[in-house]
Write the structure tokens for this entry.
Amino acid sequence: MNRRQFLLSSAAAAAGALLPRLGQAIGEDAWAKGFADSLAHNPYLSGFAGISEDVLETGRLSLDGAIPAALRGTFYRNGPARYERGGLRYHHWFDGDGMVQAFRFGDDGISHVGRFVHTQKYDAETKAGKFLLPAFGTRFADARPVSGPDPLNVANTNVLPLAGQLLALWEGGSAYVLDPLTVETFGPKTWRDDLKGMPFSAHPKIDQDGTVWNFGVDTGSASMVLYQISSHGVLVKADVFAVPGIAMVHDFAITAKHLVFLLPPFEFDSSRLEQGASFLDCHRWLPGAPLRVLTVDKGDWTQRKFYDLPTGFLFHLGNAWEEAGGTIRFDCVRADDPSVMTAKIPAIMRGAPSASLGSKPTLVTLDPLAGTAKQEVVDASVEFPRVDPRYLGRRYRQLYSVAFTGGSRQWHGFNAILRRDIETGQTDVFDYGENTMVEEHIVVPRVDGKEGAGWAIGTALDVATNTTMLSVFDALDLAAGPIVQARLPYALPLGFHGTFANA
């Protein structure tokens, strides 16, 4: 059995087991009705309404302020953008078809274009006018049989500019190649024939020398694939190895010598597939079980070590570094359990109120000599951590994230961006206001200067006007407010991750 067969065989078996139950009729879609009824009086749900237009495009946007002369290039973002077809609505935010946004920063101003990624799934369902396939958190009647992850690929999570191409990334399947100028879709990326269709995750890391590191997880076979890719976009090395008990792993970190993964105690139960459960609902939380840390030597992938942290769940890590004695330090955003994914997000998708996500910044220290791990949890509500990309894998101090600073105010998503000095604990915050839902902000460094010297760029949804704002901040003085802000004439669905490609 080759590598591709090894990873895809269990996915095919799982899909086949799901099919008999997918024939069950579900009748009127209570999710679509519930969301529509709630949206009529709750404007904060507009970020999850989705759109049906294949392309959104606007020329020169009006600006409040001036674009810094040194800031030229394209800010790309990706996220789910279509949730309904044929009267049915997805039950999970993660299920939506991916739409890549491109904000162009030029001498003549800022323009925007957004296009859906034309995956195999998107094109087939557009032609049919209805959902044809199961999704991460939703199952539908009369779904087509699938032979692996790629037929389900929605390419909706992140983007990676690499060697003249733009890759739209998903969690469990191939990257999709886009034209970096028009963001039109070329097709799926195959790194090597025996790697065709294997998972290529949505959080690749770019090392100091330009090397791209990434991974993929196949839950059914409890295995992980690692990728090492040159700065020219050429695959250097890839391999598959078993990781007993591995389930969902969304992100990882790198140091000078290691790759660092966190493995939540979220067990995959294949028997639930036979009962008609979605892929998400086939997972079972193990209360009290440790949150495992896996380190892999970058020079010898057979050198792997496990550590245990107190039980917890997470999506994202910010950054990591390695000290001279081998101690590894990193930050992540942890929660007590996966309820944000299993309960809170589905509640939003059907129009029900949702509590705060409960995700907190956490600093972790690994001692390889003692084989121990310890964590320090900071009392704050944050997500989407980012750092100055020049410091990826190196010792850093400035950690950026979106934050909820509302105190007793009802939670309607994140309302602020925050910079935390992880050594002193000091923070620098800009609050967008109660009527704004803030998305990930990234750091775009200047050519030279100290850590954080540059700009923080991100989008936010103004629910009062139902429009999306693009803001640029001095990354070392967020509290001063935007240097320049542009407003689109429409609202973009709330998305996930992005990057900036210099002109």
